[in-house]
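Priority: medium. Attachment 1 of 2:
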């Protein structure tokens, strides 16, 4: 098995193991976005994704690549869109199918989307490509472009190499200590700078590219201290939004977000 395949398989196994954890996270989000680092960061991503969805005509077709437990499928189906998803992690997929009766949810991977060319108006992938080897990221972007209609929109997240939470350094230290690039406890993470990500998108045939950041790194670190993160996030929520309107903040954000159109 190649390293590329191993990394991909580890990502699938990891997410199958944590399906129940993600169910809990989404229940937490329904109570308060300030509950933990996941709910707060994911809320910031969701606001950006919802802004993309609002640009669509009623009844537009949407594909969720790596749909997890299906929370986004339920949300956008309820808003009147035609939705479909792929999810290779068995336990995640089982929850998504259970909670989204009648929705097409397929066992497939991002590098080989089981849909015809030009089918969707919007394709998005939240915290998916980051777990793949660079070769698979490139294949996935090519597939994403292929299944979009001309002028269709894409939206996905990656991880900043220079995020101020120091995750790049932590990930490299884990790899050295465990003597492996990826295992189910600590799956692979592919890091990008904004300029590197833009270059990959242009190579894949994307234009109207937007790359921006969300979530102050300090807030993510604050959540590691009991009772501190949520209180601090509530106080700094508006500051976080203001900071990430500045292009200079993008390379250092906790979440790196990319959007663009098919040429």
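Attachment 2 of 2:
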């Amino acid at each position: 098995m190649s390293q590329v395949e191993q990394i991909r398989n580890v990502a699938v196994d990891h997410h199958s193991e944590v399906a129940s954890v993600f169910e809990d996270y989404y229940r937490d989000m329904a109570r308060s976005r300030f509950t933990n680092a996941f709910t707060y960061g994911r809320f910031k991503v969701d606001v950006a994704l919802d802004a993309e969805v609002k640009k669509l005509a009623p009844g537009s077709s949407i594909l969720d690549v790596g749909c997890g437990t299906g929370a986004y499928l339920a949300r956008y189906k309820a808003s009147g869109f035609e939705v479909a998803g792929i999810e290779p992690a068995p336990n995640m997929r089982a929850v998504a199918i259970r909670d989204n009766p009648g929705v097409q949810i397929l066992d497939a991977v991002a590098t080989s989307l089981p849909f015809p060319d030009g089918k969707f108006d919007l394709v998005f992938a939240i915290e998916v490509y980051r777990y793949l080897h660079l070769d698979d990221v490139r294949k996935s972007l090519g597939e994403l472009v292929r299944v979009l209609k001309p002028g269709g929109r894409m939206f996905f997240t990656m991880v900043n190499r220079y995020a101020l939470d120091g995750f790049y350094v932590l990930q490299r230290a884990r790899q050295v200590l465990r003597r492996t690039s990826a295992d189910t406890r600590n799956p692979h993470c592919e890091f990008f700078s904004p300029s590197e990500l833009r270059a990959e998108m242009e190579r894949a045939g994307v234009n109207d590219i937007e790359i921006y950041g969300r979530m102050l790194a300090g807030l993510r670190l604050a959540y590691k201290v009991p009772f501190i993160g949520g209180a601090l996030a509530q106080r700094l929520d508006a500051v976080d939004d203001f900071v990430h309107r500045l292009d200079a903040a993008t390379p250092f954000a906790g979440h790196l977000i990319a959007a663009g159109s098919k040429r």
